[in-house]
Design goal:
The complex is a heterodimer of chains A (205) and B (207). By secondary structure, chain A is α+β, with helices and mostly antiparallel strands. Chain A has 5 helices and 7 strands. Chain A has one domain. In chain A, the strands form 2 sheets. Chain A has a 5-stranded antiparallel sheet, with helices on both faces. A two-stranded parallel ribbon of chain A has the order 6-7. In chain A, a hairpin with a 2-residue loop joins strand 1 (71-77) and strand 2. The relative contact order of chain A is 0.11. Chain B has one domain (24-199). In chain B, strand 1 and strand 2 form a beta hairpin. Chain B is globular and about 65 Å long. Classes of the chains: A alpha+beta (205), B mainly alpha (207). Chain A binds chain B through residues 3, 5-6, 10-11, 14-15, 18-19, 22, 25-26, 29-30, 33, 36-37, 40-41, 43-44, 128, 131-132, and chain B through 37, 66-71, 74-75, 78-79, 82, 85-86, 89-90, 92-94, 96, 100, 103, 180, 183-185.
């Protein structure tokens, strides 16, 4: 007897079996690969922290070892995560920040000297900024290096760090990425909102 | 039937040249524009599409006689979506950097017209082995164009290939500047157009 592949009951049973088989297959693959994926995400975060400390070009086990060597403490203040690091005997703080770019979220790791005012290094990441324009905040190492040595607060205690179109205050302001004004504004806002929270909290400690 | 009969060879080689999915059928253009700003993601994307086309062709070809005609597109989509999800999970586990770079475009392989086109036009009517060859052929035909465009864009846009700097610093000292246009998707469209033009000028014969 030849099956009638066009009958309703055949179609329903066929699709039910197909979906169940596929669901089991996907669940199995997901379970089997989960540990490796988690390890990759964790390593990626460690690499970003190292980038913010101006340690670039390391991969895999090297990055892992360097991270262990440099980062002394992963801790919290007022519910905010931060990292205490040691570079050549000097203490650096790394602050993770989150903000909004043009098309999606942006994030950053900013390392600050132990005076809690001078930026030591910065690394930015984004979810979906335009390649070649907004994405330069992640791709352009030269742009990230502009942040080195900038002061977060001015002498009178106001927030001074900013990403602007026309740099007037060289000690705190960074030129924005050409063609990516809105992404740059997002970076500026993220730094100005996020960094003082950490600094004020740590100063009180 | 021999595994590499003349017919099977044609099934494999046609999509590489005279029936190329991008050059002649102009399918799968959107992803070709999006992932070709550098060579490495272009290669990975090409491989991913090749693997997925080949295996979805085989699977659909094996079950082609059991598929109810009325829901055949749904069945094809489920098979393709499952394969794409598996490939994307494997990329996340073994090539994390590349999977971040490819971002949504791996998922979008599901809607790649090349896949649905091959499933409908070939796998539904042919045995598994020719379907496999057809899938590999079409995938490689697609990958080939991606690699050409990716290499051109990375070389002129960044002066590097596969992330390694090719143009020495002395070039830049003499005033050579990377062409920023090349990193934009618009330039990929123009390059694909140029590749199609060159290909037609040499190979295409009016019927």
């Amino acid at each position: 007897m030849k099956l009638n592949t066009n009958s309703n009951s055949y179609i329903i049973i066929y699709s039910a079996i197909l979906v169940v088989v596929v669901a089991f297959l996907l669940a199995f693959v997901y379970q089997a690969l989960k540990p490796m994926q988690d390890a990759n995400v964790a390593l990626d975060i460690k690499k970003q922290i190292l980038y913010s400390l101006n340690i670039r070009g390391l991969d895999g086990a090297e990055a892992e070892a360097k991270y262990k060597d440099v980062v002394k403490e992963e801790t919290k203040i007022n519910g905010l995560d931060y990292y205490v690091c040691n570079i050549d005997g000097k203490t650096k703080y790394v602050f993770p920040l989150k903000g909004m770019g043009l098309w999606g979220g942006i994030s950053a790791f900013v390392s600050v000297n132990d005076d809690l005012n001078t930026i030591y290094g910065a690394y930015f990441n984004h979810e979906s900024e335009t390649a070649g324009l907004g994405a330069e905040i992640k791709d352009s190492q030269a742009w990230q290096e502009n942040f080195q040595g900038k002061k977060i607060m001015s002498d009178d205690g106001n927030v001074a760090i900013a990403v602007v179109k026309k740099v007037e205050n060289k000690s705190s302001e960074v030129d924005c990425v050409t063609g990516a004004t809105l992404t740059s504004n997002g970076v500026s806002k993220m730094l100005r909102n996020g960094l003082p929270q950490y600094i004020n909290a740590l100063k009180k400690k | 039937m021999a595994l590499f009969s003349k017919q099977n060879k044609e099934v494999f080689t046609n999509p590489l040249n005279l029936d190329n999915p991008i050059l002649i059928q102009v399918l799968g253009i959107c992803s070709a524009l999006a992932v070709t700003s550098q060579l490495k993601p272009a290669i990975v994307m090409g491989l991913a599409v090749t693997i997925i086309t080949a295996f979805s062709n085989v699977i659909i070809s094996i079950i082609r006689n059991t598929i109810p005609n009325r829901i055949r597109i749904v069945v094809q989509l489920v098979v393709v979506a499952a394969l794409v999800t598996i490939v994307s999970q494997i990329l996340k586990a073994f090539a994390y950097d590349v999977s971040v770079q490819l971002s949504v475009y791996v998922g979008l392989i599901i809607t790649n017209c090349i896949l649905m086109g091959r499933l409908e036009a070939f796998a539904m009517m042919n045995k598994p082995w020719p379907s496999f060859l057809d899938g590999v052929g079409n995938g490689l035909g697609y990958a080939m164009i991606l690699v050409i465009v990716g290499a051109l864009r990375e070389f002129f846009g960044r002066g590097s290939l596969m992330g390694f700097q090719i143009l020495p610093q002395s070039f830049y000292d003499f005033g050579y500047v990377n062409n920023g246009m090349m990193t934009m998707p618009a330039m990929a469209l123009i390059l694909v157009g140029v590749v199609i033009w060159v290909h037609r000028a040499y190979f295409y014969k009016e019927k």
